[in-house]
Amino acid sequence: MKIKDIKVFVCCPGRNFVTVKVITEDGTYGLGDATLNGREMAVVAYLEEHIVPCLLGRDAHQIEDIWQYLYKGAYWQNGAVSMAAIGAIDMALWDIKGKLANMPVYQLLGGKSRKGVTVYGHANGETIEEVLNNLGTFIKEGYKAVRLQCTIPNTKGTYGTMEGKKNYYELQGNRPLPPEQVWSTDRYMNFIPELFKQAREKFGYEIALCHDVHSRLTPIEASRLCKLLEPYKLLFIEDAVTTENAEGYKVIREHTDTPLATGEKFNTLWDAKEMIQNQWIDYVRTAVPHGGGLTPLKKLADFASLHHVRMAPHGAPDLSPVCVMAHMHFNLWAPNFGVQEFIGFGTPELNEVFQYKIELKEGLLYMDDKPGWGIDFVEEAAKKYPYKRSYLPVNRLEDGTLWNW
Ligand code: EZ4
Ligand code: CO
C-alpha cells in the first residue's frame, strides 16, 4: 500500500495545531499530530523539506521500518522538533493500518486492558477559594482525579493558572511574543501546602489530587515541598525539578514518599531510561507525538511496566484532538496505564476542525469503536483559522534572572 501524498496543515482554532495527513494509493488516509507549542513552523519545515520526499512511494504498512528509517536515517537523532515530526508520521501510519484492518488501533496493540480511561481535570484559580470551588465542580461531575494550580500571592502571573482567561485555548493562542512571569521559590513553598491542606479539609481523601511544579525547584527544594505535602497524600507531584539531570529525581526520592511524575518533554526512551530503571519516578508523562509516535511509546510503556512505573501521558491544550484520540487507544491498551491529563471537550472552533467523539462517565473517558484513531480533520474548516505566532511564557526570578521555563 504505497504512500501517495503527505499534507501538513497549520491552523489556529483557538491555538496552533500542526496536523499531518498521510494518503495512500487507494485513498485511505491517516492523521498525526505534529504540534510543538511555540515552535510549530520548525516542525512543518522538518516535515515538508526533509521527511515527505523520503516517504513518497514507500509501503505505508512498514511502520517499524519507516520509524527506524526516519530516526536512525537522519543521523541527527533525538530533539523535540525532529521527534515531533517523526511522531506525527508514525501516528498517521497507525491510523492507516487501523483503517485498512478495519479495527481501532487499540486492537492492533493487543486489545483493551480496561473499560475506560481515568482522567484528571485542571482546577485553577487566582485564589485558594476559587481553586476549591472549581475542584468542587469537578467532583460533582464525577472526576476521580484533579490537578490543583493556584496563583501565588504577590507574584505577577503564575504558570499553569488561567491569568483570568476564559479557556486554555484563548490563553495559549494569543501570545505574539513570550510574556514574562516572575518566580519566587519562597513565596511558592510557603503557599502550596496551604492549598492542599484546605482541599483535604473541605473534600476529604476520596478525590485524587496532583500538582505540576513546572520544573521550578532545585532537588532539595523539591524534596522539602514533597515532604510538606505528604500529609495530603497526592497522586503525584509533576516536574518537581527539570529532567536534564535525572539524578535530581534520586535526591527527591531519598527524602519523600510523595509519588513523582515527569517526562512531558522526553523525546525518546533513552531520556526516560535512567529514571525508570532506578525507580526514581512513578509516572511517565511522555505524549505519543512528542515521544516520536506510538511505535516508541509502546516500547516505553513495556519498559516502564518492568519497573513498576505507570504511564500518565501529557494532555495539555497544545496537544491536538488527534493526540487525545491516540492517547485513548494507547491508554486503553497499556497494562501499566495510570491516569490521563484531560482539559475538557474543547471550543466550538476546535470541534469544527477536528471531528471525534469522546464521553466522560464517572471520571472515565470512553469513545466509539471506529477503525484507526477514530478522528477526522475538516480541511475547509481549518482554512478559516490561519496560523498565529504564539509563544509560551518565560520566567524570571525577582532579581531578573531567567529561570526554568
Ligand atoms: O507546560 O503543554 O502538564 N502540563 C503542562 C503544560 C505544558 C505545556 C507546554 O507546551 O505542563 O502546561
Ligand atoms: Co506538565
Give an account of the 3D structure.
It is a single chain. The chain is α/β, with parallel strands linked by helices and 405 residues long. It is 38% helix and 18% strand. It contains 14 helices and 17 strands. The strands form four sheets. Strands 4, 5, 7, 8, 9, 10, 11, 12, 14 and 15 form a ten-stranded mixed β-sheet that branches. A three-stranded antiparallel β-sheet has the order 1-2-3. Strand 2 and strand 3 form a beta hairpin. Helix 8 packs parallel to helix 9 and helix 10 runs parallel beside helix 11. The model has no long low-confidence stretch (mean pLDDT 96). Bound molecules: (2S,3R,4R)-2,3,4,5-tetrahydroxy-N-oxo-pentanamide (EZ4) and cobalt (II) ion (CO).
- How would you describe the oligomerization state of the chains in this entry? single chain
- Summarize the biggest pleated sheet: 10 strands, mixed
Number of helices: 14
Bound molecules: (2S,3R,4R)-2,3,4,5-tetrahydroxy-N-oxo-pentanamide, cobalt (II) ion
Number of strands: 17
Strand content: 15-25%
Helix content: 25-40%
Mean pLDDT: 96
User: What class do helices, strands and sheet pairing give?
Assistant: alpha/beta
Radius of gyration over all CA atoms, rounded: 20 Å
Distance between the termini: 44 Å
Task: Give the overall form.
Answer: globular
Unreliable stretches covering 5 or more consecutive residues: none
